[in-house]
Design goal:
It contains 20 helices and no strands. The longest helix is centred in the C-terminal third of the chain and has 51 residues, at 332-382. Helix 10 (160-172) runs antiparallel to helix 11 (176-189) and helix 18 (296-308) runs antiparallel to helix 19 (312-328). The protein is mainly α and 383 residues long. It has helices at 2-17, 22-34, 38-51, 56-68, 74-87, 92-104, 108-121, 126-138, 142-155, 160-172, 176-189, 194-206, 210-223, 229-240, 244-257, 262-274, 278-291, 296-308, 312-328, 332-382. The N and C termini lie far apart (106 Å). 81% of the residues lie in helices and 0% in strands. Among the domains are: 1-119, Serine Threonine Protein Phosphatase 5, Tetratricopeptide repeat; 123-224, Serine Threonine Protein Phosphatase 5, Tetratricopeptide repeat (Alpha Horseshoe).
Length: 383
């Protein structure tokens, strides 16, 4: 820090005497950025590029500082980086930062194209290969992902994210032996990283090796006992293994840790329906539909649950909502089905309301008779 302050003092003295020194303004911007004074840094870099529009480093540094200010500055950062690339089209340093800016902007296709250009110029940056693998994995191109992760691991064989994501790609292709080997290597390199054990558990679940999955999840829970996704995954294991009550217990545990855990609420609702525990299932669907308001399948399940409870008015309301949502999705088959069920529920709801009114009238008549009888009895008593 002393060196920076001393350098800054000397540099500012130099700029007083040499205000048109673009390189010095660039250096001043970098030092100010390191001090966290980004506004002053940008002003210095703006001055640098005004004095020397051909300065690749000034445009690059300006782009980096803008990205450091947050995603909302990524577009402006990209403009600076594109200027730098016009001056030096194959500059890997600038291309790497351009890929970062594109990622912040969510422009994945252009990011991937930029990364592929980088590896043609400089193929020994393992981080680039990992990111290429992650893009392919996210888009379901599992074989491409495996090729990219292999390149990364050939450069550095102990990259935990690459090993974990490679395991996921292998498991999606049902190459469970290789998936297990990759995930287990990740756990050995980073045994205290809960995510490595969760990936290993996911591989075992996909391979239907439930005993091994439980073992991996137990270790994950020891490392992170408050993580709601761990009991949730344990619940999935028990559900797949046919233990519905245990699955329900674990889904409840996940929800206890995270009250708005949508996937856990959804799975618990479905399990409770299979167990025919309709009252609790109705409560779960009520909670879930207060969070997720645009999924017709959830309202469909909610309606079915209320129908089982013979609460046809609530069932009608839920099926009507499901019908509208299915229609928005252009799902004609389910929209028609939900409409028919809603119509039947409405008829039963009307009958229930009619019966309830009749019951209230009978109760009212009974109370009136009892009241008159009680008045007569009291009058006779006074005589």
């Amino acid at each position: 820090m002393e060196f920076n302050e001393n350098t800054l003092h000397l540099l500012e003295e130099h700029l007083k005497s040499n205000p048109r020194d673009a390189m010095a303004w660039n250096m001043h911007g970098v030092i100010m950025a390191n001090k966290g004074e980004f506004g002053e840094a940008l002003r210095s870099l703006d001055r640098a590029v005004q004095l020397d529009p051909q300065s690749i480093q000034a445009h690059l540094n300006r782009g980096r500082i803008l990205m450091a200010l947050g995603p909302d500055k990524a577009q402006e950062a990209l403009r600076s980086l594109d200027i730098a690339l016009q001056l030096s089209p194959d500059n890997p340093e600038v291309l790497i930062d351009k890929a970062r800016a594109l990622r912040l902007l969510g422009r994945t296709r252009e990011e991937e194209e930029t990364l592929l250009k980088i590896v043609k110029i400089k193929a020994d940056i393992w981080q680039i290969w990992v990111r290429l693998g992650d893009i392919s994995l996210e888009e379901g191109r599992f074989k491409d992902a495996l090729g990219h992760y292999k390149h990364a691991l050939d450069i550095k064989d102990d990259i935990v994210p690459a090993l974990m994501h490679q395991a996921i790609a292998y498991s999606m292709l049902e190459r469970f032996k290789e998936a297990t080997r990759s995930a287990e290597r990740a756990t050995k390199i980073s045994p205290d990283d809960v995510s490595t054990w969760r990936v290993l558990a996911d591989v075992h679940v996909r391979a239907e090796r439930f005993k091994s999955a439980r073992k991996a999840l137990k270790r994950a829970r020891e490392l992170d006992p408050s993580n709601p996704s761990i009991p949730f995954t344990m619940g999935l294991v028990e559900y797949k293994d046919g233990h519905l009550k245990e699955a329900a217990r674990l889904f409840r545990a996940a929800i206890k840790r995270k009250h708005d855990y949508v996937r856990a609420l959804h799975n618990l609702g479905l399990v409770l329906m299979e167990l025919e525990e309709w009252t609790e299932a109705a409560d779960i669907w009520e909670r879930l539909t207060s969070i997720v308001k645009n999924d017709p399948t959830i309202f469909d399940a909610k309606a079915t649950t209320y129908a089982k409870l013979k609460d046809y008015c609530s069932a009608h309301e839920a099926w009507e909502r499901a019908r509208k949502l299915y229609k928005k999705r252009d799902d004609t088959v389910n929209s028609t089905r939900a409409a028919e069920l809603a119509r039947a529920a409405r008829i039963n709801c009307s009958r229930q309301k009619k019966a309830a009114r009749a019951q209230r009238e009978r109760e009212k008549a009974t109370r009136s008779f009892n009241d008159r009888f009680e008045i007569r009895r009291k009058k006779k008593g006074r005589k």
